[in-house]
Amino acid sequence: MERETPSIVSRAPQAGRLDSPRDDRTFRSISERHDDAAESTGVEISSTVLGQDNKTGRIPFYTGESPGYTSILDVFTQPNQTVPRHILLSPNISASLSTQDREFLQYKGVFTMPQKNTFTELLRAYFHHIHPILPIVDVKVFFNCNQGVQTNEWNLLLLWSMFFAATNFVGEDIWLLEGYSSRKEMKKAMYSRAKCMYDNGGETDRVVLTQSALLMAFWHSKEDGHAQPWYWIGIAISLCQVLGLHRDPDSAKLNSAFPSRLRPIWRRLWWSCFFRDRWLSLTLGRPMRINLDDCDQPMPSAADLLGDVAELPSSITNAYIPSDLPELADYWIILLKLMSTKFYLFLVIRFVSYDDRAALVTFYSPYITKIPEHLPPAHVKAWQSEIRSQLDTAALQSNSILNDLVREKLLAFAGPMTPTLLIPAMHIHLHNCKSTDALMRRVGFNNLELCMMVMESFQDTYSAAALYRGVFLVAINKIRHHFLIESSPQNTDVSDPATSRVEPPESSAILPTVSDDALNALLDDTSFLDFWDSFNVTFDSNYM
């Protein structure tokens, strides 16, 4: 027989059944509602969870899991059931900015919008180049909320964050029109305004704060040492967990009180955090913050990315949305699945993009020294030879893709993660530069030279590219010096043009201090991709 679910009121002692007037006074004392805001919020949370507050709320709130304080409300449910963990509360009343705050924001330029043409081009660049790999903005809400609204009335925190991320993909004429001397100068200005709004704008919407943090995680600079990608991604993940985005609101049963329109964007936000978390973990060699065993938010589908776009008027779609977004949405889902997969030694993988070639090199590299158990000693050399062959193949295919990008003049559209994707292939080419075979050595230098030229072209946009190039220049010079010393004067192969064409960095390049341990790790045949651990530059604090 099912037990009746009692309400809070039915659980309260009845006045006529109190043992004494003192009990009555005690009950009245603890049951009185005070005007304390925190206490009122607690009452609203309990009432909403138990379905006793029918007010229309719009602010998502996550009550947390057991043994959190709200789990005590589970006693009011049927056996083996829990109360909803995702609810909507009344919106907070935002405090108005003081005159001093507004004057400061005005001084920092956050109320000064770009020219109309720049405004349009930045939005177009954002939805063409950022949105397909980081679909964190609800396109329908973004455009519907801002139709007929003056540009200075948009959500400025989100807008400047989007402009900052999009600056990489606008033409030179745009930043010249705005009075900037370089793309980097314009990026710095956009980021400065976004961060100023984040710190001083009084934004209370945690979804907007999460979106902004994810976008500002593309910032790299020595001047802002603590606020780097690792910092911003940590904030975004924390905000997502506060909102409960890592948990499925329908995990126990359909949460009818939670709007279905929020589910797609929540899935996209959480899995965008996952995507960036995995990427930075690979780049920086740091532990992943997100453990999928602690999460049950379903992976988004391509339909989640396309649903809000389908509701836009054709005028907006044609002006801002890429026509191949359906294909790009499929690619993003494939990338998420790839990043959430646990790779094993004999897993067969078919790769098609530059990202995948870099992943292939990263996948094979450990098995140069990690010999399979029970492999007969007589087969070890053959095993290592096969792995090296696979590494060389992946690195050469990476160069082939680079050639295509250069020929088609597509490097200008490379994303902020592209310089890092070059590193695995460059590492393989660098090891070939050490070959005792003169022809193989020259081939290695030629292949590495292409990567170095491409990396040099990225330096004007991405500071990390200058760092990477500086590290490899030191290693190249050490190899070249080694062969020049050990070779006889008659042996001209060691001073071949392939080595001499790798020019020293210009004054704009960043030359890091590379320790002997780091350099030896970079050049060691058995330490593929591990040299960052001993690299004595504060890598992420300056460039990532």
Automatic annotation (TrEMBL):
Offer one example of a GO biological process linked to this entry.
DNA-templated transcription
GO MF annotations for this entry? DNA binding; zinc ion binding
Does the keyword Cell division feature in the UniProt annotation?
no
Question: InterPro entries given for it?
Answer: Fungal_Detox/Toxin_TFs (IPR052761), XnlR_reg_dom (IPR007219)
User: Residue ranges under compositional bias (Basic and acidic residues)?
Assistant: 19-37
The protein's name is: Xylanolytic transcriptional activator regulatory domain-containing protein
- The Xylanolytic transcriptional activator regulatory domain covers which part of the protein? 229-306
The reply to whether Nucleus figures as a keyword in the UniProt entry is yes
From the UniProt annotation, give the residues forming the signal peptide: none
Keywords from the named record: Nucleus
Task: Give the matching CDD domains.
Answer: fungal_TF_MHR
**Region (Disordered): which ranges?**
1-43
